[in-house]
Design a protein that fits this description.
The protein is an alpha+beta fold. The protein has two helices and ten strands; from the N terminus they run H-H-E-E-E-E-E-E-E-E-E-E. Keywords: Signal.
Amino acid sequence: MKTYQSILAAACIAVAFASCSEPKTAETSESKVAEETMEAAAETESRPSPLMVKEGQISGKAIKVQYGSPAVKERQLWGDLVPYNVVWRTGANEASYVDLAEDITVEGKTLAAGKYSLFTIPKESGPWTVIFNSEWDLEHGHFQYDEKNDVLRVEVEPVWEETSQESLSMEIENPGIVIRWEKLKLPISIN
């Protein structure tokens, strides 16, 4: 009988201690958000083509671009890795996008405020086609591209420079958004 009473007393003490402490599996929403933020940062750091965000103003209008920045890595880009006459996501991984706070003019044509994916059609010679598409949140870039969602297409003359740039960049600078990669400079005029 004493053994039974001892076991019962020990069980009561264990239950009392367990009920006084918080369950170890419970997490606050703040710790979950912090953990998700750290995971996203780690994923960004581990990407072969880092996710880049650039913000600036052109003619007093706020513009933001987001893109995956691939590197040349001694590869043949134009006409090979990036084929001619085929829609290119203009970056790596998910589709690059442009976020416009106000209406702007791109190469003389009006583009309403909003978010747009940015695609190009590279050409071996002559102007490239620059495309702004209403489906801006595409996980797999040009694989999900649908021409019926094009909002604006303009022609832009590429400039081929002597010096080479290893990683793709999109800068908000005169005359608008300037894309550079390898020896390419694609200046998209914005007002």
